[in-house]
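User: Modeling request: complex.
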Amino acid sequence: MEPTTITAMAGDAQLDTSSNPARLKISGQWTLVNYARLKLLTEQLAGKYDARTQIDLDDVSRLDTAGASLLVELLGSERVAQLADSATKLPAADRALLQTVYSSMRDFCVPVKAVEVNLGIQLLSRIGCSVDKLWQDTLQLLGFIGVILQTLARNFFRPKQWRITPVVAQIEQIGLNAAPIVALLTFMVGAVVAFLGATVLSNFGAGIYTVDLVAFSFLREFGVLLTAILMAGRTASSFTAQIGSMKANEEIDAIRTLGLDPMDLLVLPRVLALLIALPLLTFLAMMAGILGGAVVCVVSIGISPDMFISMLHSDIGVKNFLVGMVKAPFFAFLIAAVGCLEGFKVSGSAESVGAHTTSSVVQSIFIVILLDAVAALFFMEMGW
Amino acid sequence: MSTPTKAPREAVIEVRGLCNRFGSQSVHENLDLDVYKGEILGVVGGSGTGKSVLLRSIVGLRRPTEGEVRVFGKDLLSLHEAERSLIERRFGVLFQKGALFSSLTVTENIALPLIEHAGLSRPDAEHLACVKLALAGLPLSAADKYPSSLSGGMVKRAALARALALDPDILFLDEPTAGLDPIGAAAFDQLILTLRDALGLSVFLVTHDLDTLYTITDRVAVLSQKRVLVAAPIAEVEDFDDPWIHEYFHGPRGRAAYEAATQRKEQ
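Assistant: Request completed. Predicted assembly structure:
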């Protein structure tokens, strides 16, 4: 293996055309380290000798599968088969190697690569594929939502089948455990919005309306939207990972063969838990956001807490709170549905779990923002 | 088919005084084991006797608590990273579940070490990978597939092809026939035997498959009581005076495998 011997003993093949019949002398180390050079050599030699050429393998000092495969390609498997029998000076191990390689390569040809399609067509075909995939995904999601609603309706009238414990356990995981991060995040966003408002509105001498800005934005939009996006990142991904790893481990199949319904066992508790947890967290987010805004108002533009509260009472109707709150269950349902569905789409490998987890987060955030935009338009048109 | 090599027995792996402890639990205490050049050594032992831990200690995936592992006469643990890597390239390891890289096709899996270590160009490496595939007995149709769409037997063969990519001197097999059907398992046994003879490999084979033990191993090492209880040709191991060994080889499955192997030899 030392590099010096490699260069000294590098494999070689020399065609001696002076004698009759011509002699092809193959010598040195025909091993993987010399592969690139030997390959070039064999390509040069190809077609320059015929069946009568004598082939001399006596000086081959080392041979491995890479070298043997090159010899088979250079000489053809029949010739190598003969040589493996007749080249008595070659060690028995090398002859056995030649035999193994030629017999495994006998019915063997290198796969033909698919012809490269032109770039424009490739682009078109990719666009087509994505559109088709989007359509299929949408259909699947709608179908899955239907199945969830069906299961929900079926179980609603059978209190015996209500699975209270898993629902409560899920609420703890996705609701209670997420409360600190939701509260902290919205508190800070509330403070930022208040700073912006204070800066811009003070120019017009309307700094007092910072209160309205914070309250409006958090009650109508930010409270529910920020919570939903957080839940999409935190909960949809965990749903996909949980169900996906169960799918990869054939646990879903086991549930089915035991005569149970994974929708009952896995999906419904998660959907219900998020339906309960997300509105609660939304409320928490609204309060924390307004509190964040209040702190900034008190500290930087000198609105007293009493004043802040009385502004809220006089300017902000409870309607705004309801407009924000009513979106929460829809977001919750869609996030849970996307998370669970992506989990069921996982196939076999751990890699697939990762891919679908990513996809579930992206999809649920996309759906949440899309739906929020539609809702904003709707509420605006209705004048609510 | 146990034909002990008569040539001077040159040890390629020498394990001396190996101890492996996990916290207070000890798996190996003063374990000694030799693997000779060109032999197929079967390693057996009950569950939890540390067969896989031993394999991992030898190939360098686990640093033993104490002891020495010498490979080709060099102490693997005291070598520098670069020298170690050179030696480790002469290992081929077939993991129990194949451990094929799931994001690469079968050909790319095999071509990877060829590109990284042998410095081949991509087309050359993929071409050579196809040769290795043929050696491992995989149909060419499997070449462009991803591991997730292969059957269990094909995964093993593809993983074997990857283990053979750099023409290793020592092949480590962790339960190669587990999960294969009997026909596939027998074919795999024969494949290992053929490759050993053709490529001059030394094979370290962890297995529970009694048929494999009787068919292809030259020696069998029994791990028990935290050390290698006995390492000898299977006929001698069978007669070793130990209740576990007796039950293992003289139980109904052991006898069936023994008779099958003798019948095969008579034919």
